[in-house]
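Reader question, answered in our methods column.
A reader sent in the components of a multi-part assembly and asked whether the whole thing could be modeled at once rather than chain by chain. We filled in our standard form and ran it. Here is what they sent:
COMPLEX SIZE: two components
ENTRIES:
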Amino acid sequence: MSNDWLNDLRRKMENHTDDVPDELWDDIRYKLFEEEKTKAPILIQMNDDLKTEKKAIKNNKKHQSLYYRIGGIAAAIAMFFILERLIDFNSKKEQSPVSEYANKSGETIYNDQKLSIDKNDGSTENSLEDRRGVIVMNSGKEKRRNQILDKNIFNKTNSKIDFWKENTFEVQTKSNDNILMQDAQRLVQTENLNLGKQQENIEESTHELLTKQEREWKEKFEDAEKARLAKNKSKKKWMVGVLTGNTSSNSTDQFPGYATLNGTTLSLPEVWSVGFEENPLMEILLANQDKKVDAKIKHKTPVTFGASVYYNIGKKWGIGTGINYTKLSAEVVSGSSDNFISSEQNIHYLGLPVQVNYNVIQKGAFTAYITGGGVVEKAISGQIKTKYIVDGLPKEETKEDISEKPVQVSANTAVGFQLKILKQIGVYAEPGIGYHFNDNSNLKTIYKEKPVNLNLKFGIRVSIN
Amino acid sequence: MKNKEQILVDCLLRKEEVAWKEFFEAYSGNLSYVCSRYIIDAEDVNDVLQNSFLQMFHSISSFEYRGAGSFKAWITKIVVNESLKHIKKKLNFKEISDDFEIPAEEGDEDPNFEEISQHTIMEMIRALPEGYRTVFNLYVFEKKSHKEIAKILGIAENSSASQFHRAKAILVKKIKEYKMSKTAQYE
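And here is the structure of the entire assembly that came back:
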């Protein structure tokens, strides 16, 4: 006896149907389309409302952080400029505002980091008491589920936060921003240092305050100055620079369902063929089957480093090129709170920027310019790390290389401020706006989510001619 | 050109109530049959079907169209999996004995069931002991290998094979008995 008759049996039964009671659809319909509408409307609405309020705060924060950052940099440059031009750094006293600013902003960053880590804690040292009060009050109200009150309180919190932000002048939420800020501070301090050095009477005391790192910076500048003295008479045409930049926008996206970073969708049939007991993805899908599933994509702020060569054409115009390194990180979390898939994507780009500068204002050491150009970036490597979390426990971890290596083209325009510390060395800040063209790949990057972004570059330029 | 199945999936993806109702009406009968192969109690069948539809609703975005029939395969698999989940709550497959009370009779001929109605065959399958029936269904209708069945049910591979043979033997016997009773009636 063969098993062929079993195939016939399967074929015979293929289109067989059983009766389904009419109530079944009603039950399903209720569960799928009615339940959410009817279940405790106040509660649901309030939750939504809270969410949006929170989101609003978040967005607000994001935007404000940008404005304040730009404002902060502009102010730092302006302050520096004013101090340099008008007060002339004749005494330590006059120098102190700058370092005070640096200290203060450092403190602020610290505070804000704390704040973002634990909002409810709110344990920042200055001017936060009332804020904490509001939050505590707020959490109390949340329990009472009073929508209107909540809204008000949130608004209040919002304005308090605004107020507090204005007071503290700088808001940083991202740690790499912090690093960049610290870099900038270091630059500012170094500027102080170098200018101070020109005023020989204050050099000694400043020197004592230097950290090791700053000493290294100083040594570099001293070397550069020696070089400058050697080539004092040559005309400055060529410049090289190093830069670091970040785009202001990190982005978080949430939508129902599951998502992956390389653009493919998770497929159940594929999973099934592997056998659904051992597969963590299957376990996650099964555990979440009755729950609402969301995928959350979080793109971290891109980090860019680079070096550039710059050539002045005449007094007003200049062109520059160089090499850039950019790292893009993104995180996807799909699933519910206990059962989810978490992937982390890192893509590294090498880029070739081309830019044209036009100097608008040139007064002594200060230059304000507008710049425009483009960058061609090629992904040089990328990895995706995927973790499967089942019942809150990591079940499996996979790592894969991204084979797709797209070329990313972007256009950028910015306003730049440069301040020469020495004749050959200038520091600059360039707040700008960029547009990233579609690279026609399946990779999900922040460039795709937000083709237009605001960015801020810092750097130093050294003239080499 | 998108075929009917793809158009349906597109509508389902948008979570339109009308589309889901249509989908339910078109497929629930067949899915109910799939489910009843595994589960005897009518209320349990409806519970499992309901869960299956909820799961389809929530995971439709993960469905990837791979040619004709792939959607039906997908929904069927969800129902099968839900059914197995339900059975496993009550039945420990490891405890099912492999001892044959009835020796597996290997007849010379394949059983002829052409004249037997789908309904009667269904009754025969449903009359199989639960453990054997599950293995039989997975092997015949879900086209799983014994290796896969062993993995799914957490039993040994040879246990799956022997349970399948036993189920098959019982079914063959039943078909023969049925035909004999039919011919007896006519005589």
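What stands out: Chain A touches chain B through 48 residues (CB under 8 Å). Chain A is about 45% helix and 30% strand.
Send us your own complexes using the same form.
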